[in-house]
Design a protein that fits this description.
The structure holds two protein chains of two kinds. By secondary structure, chain A is mainly α. In chain A, 67% of the residues lie in helices and 0% in strands. Chain A is built from eight helices and no strands. Chain B is mainly beta. The chains are: A mainly alpha, B mainly beta. Chain B: Keywords: Membrane, Transmembrane, Transmembrane helix.
Amino acid sequence: MAPRPGDAPVVFDEFVLARSSSLLRTAYLLTHDHALAEDLLQTALAKAWFAWERIDQHEAYVRRILVTTYATWWRRRWNGEHPTDELPETGGPHPPGPTDPGDAVGQRHDLWSAMERLPRRQRAVVVLRYFEDLTEAQTAQVLGCSVGTVKSQASKAFAKLRIDPSLAPVPSTTSVTETEDRS
Amino acid sequence: MSTVDDLRSTLEDRARAVDDPGASPRVVAVHERVRGLRRRRRAAAGALAAVVVAAGVGLAALGPVGGGDGPAPAEGPRTLAGQEVPATVSLLGVRYDFETAVEVDVSEGTARVSFEPGEQPVAVSLVASGLDGGTATLVDSGDGVARSLGAGSVERPVPLPSSGTSLRVVLDDVGPDAQVALAVYQRGDEPPAGVVAPGGDAWFRAERAGEPLLGGGFTDPGGNELQVRFELDERQRVRFSSYCTADAPGAWVNIDIDDQPGFSRTSCDEDAPADASGSWGSPAGPLGAGTHTMRVYLTRGSEGPLLEDPDALLGVAAYAEPETVEVAEAEMDRVIEVDGRLWELDAALPATRDGEPVARRVESSPGPRVVGFAARGGIVGLRVEGGGAGSRGLGSSLIDARGGASTIVGTLLGGDDYELSLREDRGRPTQGTIVLYRPVFAAADGQR
């Protein structure tokens, strides 16, 4: 049945009602900030509105705008406001990390804090791969880059997490490879 | 020891802890953003080259009217598509000069013309003659923005989106002798009367919807805070506008009025329109006579610290509120600005009965009408049925009417029949009225 005038906006609204909570979570994992997450999500949805009738996979499209918009924001933010937040490639002595299983909550907090210090594309890769459970190819498609770039960004992300002073021993690249194989 | 499982757990824990304030308010907020983007796209503030690219069938010729190697000078009127078109036009006080023309091949039903971002903003006028009862419609992103009927006409120029756009000219039942063209105008270098930012890249017009600018100002480039005072001779309602461009992500522009912080907090746009008069906010009540202070400042996030950005430019202004009328327990302006021109209230059509929507018909609209609505109760939008080319973009505006609200939706083009109805997104009771505005013709316009 041919669409009638006015139909598309209704579908859009229904999409926002049904799916935006999920997208908000992704936005928060990317931005680590509730206000920025809402702003990012609304920005992405408003951009998507203009292309709504031309796209088939709406959620994938919005997610891609979300991530690419975030990447742009974050690039500027690192350069403009927090130029010293980039971690050095090599670190000094690591503080002792939690070894007691009871420290799991604290360890997760540290991991969350360490993720905040990841460059934008690396954080995006981490979120897409390990929260959205996208494959390398899907992640590459969302970010508009090659699969090789996704692999290298993931590897660099784990390398940075490994040397982050707030963390205990971190996932090895072997673990990453195992996960890659599962996907 | 941290593993990929720890990473997944951390992400999932953080995601689960996100407190979503609700999707319905988000629908409203997103539509507000869309409306703002669409307004800005058609605001007289964009940056488009007056260079057009034919994209698709139907375009017969490009280039300046009368031939030549470049744009014709903006001197006297000239003939285009069998009509005399003016050399210059004024859109809300901003001068535009004739730049070039695009002639449309009437043997095809649709012509497409793409405009790409450039140095100067442009506006486009639909010109037609010999339509022999048919219609020529100019469509921008699904929205009909101008239509020529009957024998033909020179339609008032419409400002184009700042980000570039692809226009369609849709011809319906036109005769073989019809002539259709687009006259492309480029904004002049002089900003309009009012308060102008350093460098002339933005301004607050001296008058908005017929009401005067009470006070306003801009920071120097890189400034992140500004205070501007204005005087009121008597107790009255005031509307405030702001301007913000910033390169920093997550930048928000805030306005404090007198001793009340946070009158307005919105995200800062990278591509704010040069005409900063177009959008505004208004306190619930009037301000007293005397001196008042507006403070505008830039923060990270909605409530974050002051943000330094060498590329930031902020502005704030106050305008007197125009005459309003009460519709469905909400206030609507008697005169509004849409698509670079003034419109005045023409009709108010009750659109609910006992809390349920009832459809209203607008038959053979004699000319363009801006449509809007006022409602009280629920999250409410407008549904538009009928209409020909250019009606796709209508009916998309949901507003939060739980406390009473009104909005402008778009333009109904002349010559079509429409069925208009309100819809509450969950089917809850609401009270509402649909309003129609007709164009205000300036004596010097000489255009429809």
